[in-house]
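Lecture 7 notes: from sequence to structure.
We start with the chain below.
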Amino acid sequence: MGEDLERYARQVALPELGADGQRRLAASRAVVVGCGALGGFTSMMLVRAGIGDVVVIDRDTPERTNLHRQVLYDEADVDAGTPKAVAAARRLASMNRDVRVTPVVAHVDGGNVEAGIRGADLVLDGADNFALRLVVNEACVRHGIPWVHGGILGTVGQQFTILPGRTACYECLIEEEPAPGTAP
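Predicted structure tokens for the same chain:
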């Protein structure tokens, strides 16, 4: 972010944020795990808000059935088989040249989650399964990184902010992964 705060004038005008807060956002790193419908929208809002460094992690490629709800992809991405993280990063970078967007095409698990969230000031949930959320929760709690769980299924959504050491964690709510097909 250059010193020109005009782009963020509506945010800077908020007494809770101000110019100093906007500069802190520009110096922050957010990691979005999963960039489908929820993760795509979330990462788009981070970039538009001026978060300085946004990492998008996803292992999948967009499908035609995603296009009506996943805002970062188009038919060309589907036709080319472009990984979601790569297509998302390209689209996000076009929204704000002052933000560094890094795509990571990976299946996140216990073996690589630490590398994925390293240096993050905040982790955001765009995952589509319990196992991944539990892995992210464990790593974020271990490293004291705040993370925001979010989930959408059909017309129902939920959100829960985890502040390690201050709030309950995801595993406190979901003690173990439900058997396949048993959770709504």
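Points to note: The mean pLDDT is 93. The beta strands are 29-33, 53-58, 100-105, 122-125, 147-153, 156-162.
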